[in-house]
Amino acid sequence: MARWLAFLWSGVIAFLLTLPASELPALPSFVPHVVARYADKGVHLGLFAIMTLLIAEAGGGLRAYWTIALVTAYGGLLEVVQGWIPGRDPSWGDLAADCAGAVLAVAIWHWLVRRRRRKVNGHHGPRAASNG
Questions:
Q1: Among 39, 86, 102, 108, which is 20 to 30 Å from 47 by CA?
Q2: DSSP string of 30-64, one letter each residue
Q3: Crossing angle, helix 2-17 and helix 64-82, to 10 degrees?
Q4: How far is the CA of 127 from the CAs of 71, 114, 123, 130, in angstroms?
Q5: pTM, whole model, 2 decimals?
Q6: Which residues contact 113 (CB under 8 A, 6 or more apart)?
Q7: What angle is formed at CA 49 by the lines to CA 8 and CA 9, rounded to 5 degrees?
Q8: What is the pLDDT of residues 77-104, one digit of tens each?
Q9: Whose CA is closest to 13, among 65, 103, 82?
Q10: Measured on CA atoms in the order 3, 9, 14, 17, is the torsion positive or negative?
């Protein structure tokens, strides 16, 4: 199931990142200019973090660095494609945000896996020091 979700999510990302600029929603006027300028990077980070988590959940035996490389390469491909979309331009900043999302997701994934293992093995975190 997770593989299909990862595949579906990659399609959602491709759809969103290849929309012509005229089709993109505008941010409300009350949003400060500096936030509006970088909101796009947060969107990229989030989209690619979710994709990375779905790939990690799907398994497949990919090591973390290959997962990051795969997701970043996909982001790079979409950035190149944006060069042919009216009103869109490829951006190194967007690609960096894609990669950062993948790295963040791998870190979260490893933390979750360690947490699950501790619960399975009966460890529930640091034990309180005895006062004796």
A1: 86
A2: TS-HHHHHHHHHHHHHHHHHHHHHHHHHH-SS--H
A3: 30
A4: 38, 17, 9, 9
A5: 0.81
A6: none
A7: 5
A8: 999 999 999 889 999 999 999 999 999 9
A9: 82
A10: negative
Note the helical H segments in the chain: 2-17, 33-58, 64-82, 92-120
- pLDDT tens column, 13-72: 999 999 998 887 777 878 787 777 788 899 999 999 999 999 988 886 678 889 999 999
Q: Which of 64, 63, 50, 40 is nearest to 11 (CA)?
A: 50
Two tokens at 30? 């009350």
Instruction: Name the residue type at position 108.
Output: I
Helix (H, G, I), strand (E, B) or coil at 71: helix
CB 78 within 8 A of CB 18: yes
Quote the CA–CA distance of 62 and 77 in Å, as a whole number: 20
Query: 């969107």: which residue's tokens?
Result: 43
